[in-house]
Amino acid sequence: MTDETPSGLSRRSMLKLAAGTAAGVALAGQAQAQPENLPTIPDEATGRPFPEAELQMPLPPGERLGWCVVGLGSFALNQVIPAIARSQTARLTALVSGNADKAARVAEHYGVPDAAIYDYENFDEIADNDDIDVVYIVLPNGLHAEYTIRAFEAGKHVMCEKPMANTVEECRQMIAASERADKKLMIAYRAHFEPHNERALQMKEDGEFGDVKMVLASTMRTLDLSRPRDEWRVLRDLAGGGSTMDIGIYALNGALYFLGETPTALVASIANPPDDVRFREVEDMLTAQLTFPSGALVNLASAYTLNENRIQLLGTEGTGLLDPATSYSGNELRQTGPDVGTRIVPVSEPAARQFTGEIDHLSRAVMEDFEPRTPGAMGLRDVGLIMAMYASAERNAWVTLNPDGTMAEG
Ligand code: NAD
């Protein structure tokens, strides 16, 4: 029991207010002594001591890490760079772009010096810029490996967008480069920092759904060739695959972080609409079934011609439904169970915290020297699993998996 009243005011606040109101009425009539339950404001109130901080304080500018953004496309300009500006630990100190005019405009807007604007040819000169600690790769997937490795060779830490790379071999080379440079590598799986997903994971770990034995996860969006950002996504060399590499990866990664284990086998099917120019090189729809050591099952669905974004956790004592699960904003978590019926689980922080959350997480991993929550090995695992799904669909057969998520040969 708490002493919360229906208005949300505590009983003690209500009493204070009531006393204040009564005193106000009385004072209007005649001078009265100050009631003893009104606070007395000390003479030195204008110079109060430091208040207790309820949130982690942002670092002062001089203590923040310098972040360099590579690729000034849609996601970088609309999400990544504004999130760096809102973060607690990062400062935008450099830009890399093939378009000098665009880079100059962004630099002026965010206060990045002209000398810290690079292009793809002189990119390696970032090694001489001590104001760059972390490089954030926001390029088409097929370029992630090259620029991640070059950033490590320049002595920087790296945040790399999902999917980590086009192939497992590239992922291995990126991890090896990170180890050679002794610098952190994090894959930008923002949903790990999204408040509704964090809450659902906490509820699952607290046993609120019972034993979660099945996850049904579908992440889909319409691929629209009229948008420049979708043009490279239909080319295998730049995209590495279709909807599964781009959007289905959220369903996969989410199912695995909710279950906390790696599958041992999977089977997948792919279907493409005939004569649709978008799907000459990459897939439209994919469904997959994954089996796990615990006996859990996962069903995944991904598509570029449908729209869905939900992850459902099915437990012995109830379900958790994230729908939408991984949007930039407006995510929702619903719990169903015998004791609660169906309820929307209140989550106080906005979904937008996912972007600043991942940036602050890597900054702190660098400053405090810990392994990021979404490391290179996780990116490799997911690329390995997607490649296994493609192989399964092509062979029309189950494939077995290694502990790192890659396909067991044979
Ligand atoms: P985009 O096309 O808008 O941006 C890509 C940028 O790379 C452009 O500025 C483009 O000029 C530049 N570029 C450099 N070399 C290029 C080349 N050879 N071909 C094409 N473009 C080249 O794409 P985007 O949507 O911003 O995606 C960029 C990355 O961010 C991708 O890896 C994508 O998966 C990822 N992404 C992640 C999220 C997320 O929620 N985490 C959302 C969107 C995109």
TrEMBL record:
List GO molecular-function terms, semicolon-separated.
nucleotide binding; oxidoreductase activity
Q: Which UniProt keywords apply?
A: Oxidoreductase, Signal
Question: Record's superkingdom?
Answer: Bacteria
Per UniProt, residues of the Gfo/Idh/MocA-like oxidoreductase N-terminal domain are 67-189
Q: What range(s) does the Gfo/Idh/MocA-like oxidoreductase C-terminal domain occupy?
A: 205-401
Task: Spell out the SUPFAM superfamilies in the cross-references.
Answer: Glyceraldehyde-3-phosphate dehydrogenase-like, C-terminal domain, NAD(P)-binding Rossmann-fold domains
Q: Which region is the signal sequence?
A: 1-33
Name this protein carries in UniProt: Gfo/Idh/MocA family oxidoreductase
